[in-house]
C-alpha cells in the first residue's frame, strides 16, 4: 500500500510533462490536442499498472522515467495515416483486401502531375471549347480491344449497373442460373440487376444451361442476353453452358443485344506464359458480343475502374444516361489508365512494366533468387529462428483464375519460443505491416509478391516482431 502511494505520487502532472524538452519538440509537428490526449492515456495506463500491482515497482519506475518517449510514440501512432503501405507476403497477386493491382512509380509520377496541375480534362485544346473527359482514353481502348466505342466508369460493378439500367430498365434480362454469382461479397448479379431496374429471368439449372433454355425464355420484354464470367468459382463435372458464339448467334437472330461481364478483363493471352487460358476482351469483341464490361484493377493491372466496350449506338445511349455522371471516373484514374493501356501496345512492355503482369509471369528461378537473398539477410541478422526456403503455390486472386496454382518459393519460418500465430500477428502490426500466410504451423512469406526494395523493412519487422513476441 505504502509502495503504491509512493508510486502514485511520483507520477508527473500533465503540466510538468508538457514542459519536458522532448514533448515541447514534439509539439512542433504533432497537434496539441493529440499530445494532451496521449499524455492522459499514458498516465491512466500507468495508474492502472500501479493499482493492479501486476507489474514490479522497478518497471513502473522505469516507465515513468521514460514517459515522454512513450507519449510521443503514442501521439505519432495517432497522426499516422490510417491507410498505408503494407508488404504483401501472401503470394496472392490481385489481393482485393490489399488494394488489388499496383501502379508503377513512373506512371504515378505522371498522375501526380495531372492531379497537381490544371489539365485539359474536359477541354478540347484544338477547338478551344468544352471537351469530354472520356475522349482521352476511348481511342486507345478501342485500338487495343477492337471495339467500336468505349466508356470508363468507377468500377465494373457500376459498369454492369449502367449497362443494365440503360438497356434493360423495366425489361427482362436472361441469365443462366449457373452464372448468378456473388463476387467479393458485395457484387451479386441478382441484386445488381434489381438495382438497375432490370427484371431477372434465370434459365437452366446450376450445372447445365442449354441454348433452348434461352430460346424458350425470350419474349416480347426481353432486352438483353447476359453472360457473366463465373470469375471466382468453377462448377466441374457434369456441366454444360452455352458458348458466347451460340449466344451471339441467337441474339442476332432475335435482335437482342448480348452483354458479357467478363470480370477480370485480360488483354493478353496468358496461356503463352504457362497460365490457364482465360478469355480476352478482344476475343469477346471478335465473336460479336455487343457489350463487354471488365475491371480496371484486376488482370489489366490498372487503377480501379469499370471499362465498357462494344457497339457505338449502345455505348452512346449509356453516355447519355444520367447514371454515368454519378459513377464517372476521376482525372487521376483517367491519367493512370491511359498510360497503362499504352503499355499494352507492346505486349513485352506490358509484361515488364505492369506490376500485376510481371508478378504473374515472373520465372520461378527469379523468385528463387529473391528467396535466397531474403533468406541470407534474415539468417545474418536474426538468430534463434528456423528459416527454410520451400516450394509452394501462389494464387492470382481478385476472382481471377480461381483454380490456378502457380509454383512459387516461400520462406517458411517458425520459432521454438513462441507460436506462429503470435508471430503472424506481430508482423501484421509492425510499423510497415507485413502480411503473411500460415500453413502447417509455419509462417510463410511468398516471394512472388514481395519486392527486393522491401527486404530491409522485412528484416527489421522480423526483429521487431520477435522482440514483441518475447515480451508478451
Ligand atoms: C470482379 C467482378 C465484378 C466486380 O468488379 P469491380 O471492378 O470490383 O466492381 C463484377 N463481375 C465479375 C464477373 C467480376 O469478376
Automatic annotation (TrEMBL):
Subcellular location: Cytoplasm
EC number in record: 2.9.1.1
Gene Ontology MF terms: L-seryl-tRNA(Sec) selenium transferase activity
Location of N6-(pyridoxal phosphate)lysine modifications: 298
GO annotation, cellular component aspect: cytoplasm
Enzyme superclass (EC): transferase
Listed pathway(s): Aminoacyl-tRNA biosynthesis; selenocysteinyl-tRNA(Sec) biosynthesis; selenocysteinyl-tRNA(Sec) from L-seryl-tRNA(Sec) (bacterial route): step 1/1
Domain L-seryl-tRNA selenium transferase N-terminal: 8-47
Needed cofactors: pyridoxal 5'-phosphate
Catalyzed reactions per annotation: L-seryl-tRNA(Sec) + selenophosphate + H(+) = L-selenocysteinyl-tRNA(Sec) + phosphate
GO biological process assignments: conversion of seryl-tRNAsec to selenocys-tRNAsec; selenocysteine incorporation
Keywords attached to this entry: Cytoplasm, Protein biosynthesis, Pyridoxal phosphate, Selenium, Transferase
InterPro entries named among the record's database cross-references: PyrdxlP-dep_Trfase (IPR015424), PyrdxlP-dep_Trfase_major (IPR015421), SelA-like (IPR018319), SelA_trans (IPR004534), SelA_trans_N_dom (IPR025862)
Pfam family, one: SelA
Entry similarity comment: Belongs to the SelA family.
Purpose: Converts seryl-tRNA(Sec) to selenocysteinyl-tRNA(Sec) required for selenoprotein biosynthesis.
PANTHER family in the record: L-SERYL-TRNA(SEC) SELENIUM TRANSFERASE
Protein name according to UniProt: L-seryl-tRNA(Sec) selenium transferase
Name of the gene encoding the protein in the UniProt record: selA
Amino acid at each position: 500500500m505504502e509502495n503504491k502511494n509512493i508510486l502514485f505520487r511520483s507520477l508527473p502532472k500533465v503540466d510538468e510533462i508538457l514542459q519536458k524538452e522532448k514533448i515541447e519538440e514534439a509539439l512542433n509537428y504533432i497537434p496539441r490536442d493529440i499530445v494532451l490526449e496521449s499524455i492522459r492515456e499514458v498516465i491512466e495506463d500507468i495508474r492502472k499498472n500501479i493499482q493492479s500491482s501486476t507489474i514490479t515497482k522497478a518497471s513502473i519506475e522505469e516507465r515513468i522515467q521514460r514517459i515522454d518517449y512513450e507519449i510521443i510514440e503514442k501521439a505519432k501512432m495517432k497522426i499516422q495515416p490510417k491507410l498505408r503501405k503494407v508488404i504483401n507476403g501472401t503470394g496472392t497477386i490481385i489481393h482485393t483486401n490489399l488494394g488489388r493491382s499496383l501502379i508503377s512509380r513512373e506512371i504515378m509520377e505522371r498522375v501526380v502531375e495531372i492531379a497537381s496541375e490544371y489539365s485539359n480534362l474536359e477541354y478540347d485544346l484544338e477547338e478551344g471549347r468544352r471537351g469530354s473527359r472520356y475522349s482521352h482514353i476511348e481511342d486507345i481502348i478501342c485500338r487495343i480491344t477492337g471495339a467500336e466505342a468505349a466508356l470508363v466508369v468507377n468500377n465494373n460493378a457500376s459498369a454492369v449497373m449502367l449497362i443494365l439500367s440503360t438497356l434493360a430498365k423495366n425489361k427482362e434480362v436472361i441469365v443462366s442460373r449457373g452464372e448468378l454469382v456473388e463476387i467479393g461479397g458485395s457484387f451479386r448479379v441478382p441484386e445488381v440487376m434489381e438495382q438497375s431496374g432490370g427484371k431477372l429471368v434465370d434459365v437452366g439449372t446450376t450445372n447445365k444451361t442449354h441454348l433452348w433454355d434461352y430460346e424458350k425464355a425470350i419474349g416480347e420484354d426481353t432486352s438483353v442476353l447476359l453472360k457473366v464470367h463465373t470469375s471466382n468459382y468453377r462448377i466441374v463435372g457434369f456441366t454444360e453452358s452455352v458458348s458466347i458464339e451460340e449466344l451471339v448467334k441467337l441474339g442476332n437472330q432475335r435482335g437482342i443485344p448480348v452483354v458479357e461481364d467478363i470480370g477480370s478483363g485480360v488483354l493478353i493471352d496468358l496461356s503463352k506464359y504457362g497460365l490457364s487460358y482465360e478469355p480476352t476482351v478482344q476475343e469477346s469483341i471478335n465473336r460479336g458480343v455487343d457489350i463487354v464490361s471488365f475491371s480496371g484493377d484486376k488482370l489489366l493491372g490498372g487503377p480501379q475502374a469499370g471499362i465498357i466496350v462494344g457497339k457505338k449506338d449502345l455505348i452512346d445511349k449509356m453516355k447519355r444516361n444520367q447514371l454515368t455522371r454519378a459513377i464517372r471516373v476521376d482525372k487521376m484514374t483517367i491519367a493512370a489508365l491511359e498510360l497503362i493501356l499504352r503499355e499494352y501496345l507492346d505486349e513485352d512492355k506490358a509484361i515488364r512494366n505492369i506490376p500485376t503482369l510481371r508478378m504473374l509471369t515472373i520465372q520461378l528461378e527469379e523468385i528463387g533468387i529473391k528467396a535466397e537473398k531474403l533468406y541470407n539477410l534474415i539468417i545474418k541478422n536474426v538468430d534463434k529462428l528456423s528459416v527454410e526456403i520451400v516450394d509452394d503455390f501462389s494464387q492470382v486472386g481478385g476472382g481471377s483464375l480461381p483454380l490456378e496454382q502457380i509454383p512459387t518459393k516461400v520462406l517458411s519460418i517458425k520459432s521454438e519460443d513462441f507460436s506462429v500465430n503470435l508471430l503472424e500477428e506481430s508482423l501484421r502490426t509492425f510499423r510497415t505491416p507485413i502480411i503473411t500466410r500460415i500453413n502447417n504451423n509455419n509462417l510463410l512469406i511468398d516471394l512472388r509478391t514481395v519486392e527486393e526494395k522491401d527486404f530491409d523493412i522485412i528484416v527489421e519487422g522480423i526483429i521487431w516482431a520477435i522482440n514483441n513476441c518475447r515480451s508478451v
